[in-house]
Specification:
Structural class: mainly alpha
Largest sheet: none
Number of domains: 1
Strand content: under 5%
Radius of gyration: 20 Å
Length: about 140
Amino acid sequence: MAAVGAAALAALVIYTVFMRWVVGQTPSWAEELPRLVLIWTALLGSVTCTHRCSHLNAGLLPLIVRSTDVRRTIGRATDIVLLVMLLVLAKAGWDLTLLTMSMTTTALKMPVGFLYLSVPVGCVGMALMQLQHVLSPGDSQ
């Protein structure tokens, strides 16, 4: 889904640039729709990154802590903290979604809450992946 979103974003931007510079008419949705696609794509893609543990990290822990048992414990604690933080963020995102559902965007005339809905959806997806990491018997990270 994230790859489809990235392709759609690229197509939207190319179309907008073409319309603006070649035709001389910018579509009314040129600002809102690519932003909406970008936000949803980023948050849905982050679920896959969380599942694969491919998110950016400094990789300094193995240089500082030599013991694999201590690294495993720190990784497990990190997974638990991330799980809690993602659930808190999902709740806040859901509250914001409900609060803004009655507002509409300027160009697309769609509920603003649909944009903010990406936060709880993405965070719940990432939280499920973190829960899988916490419950897995092997190495955490």
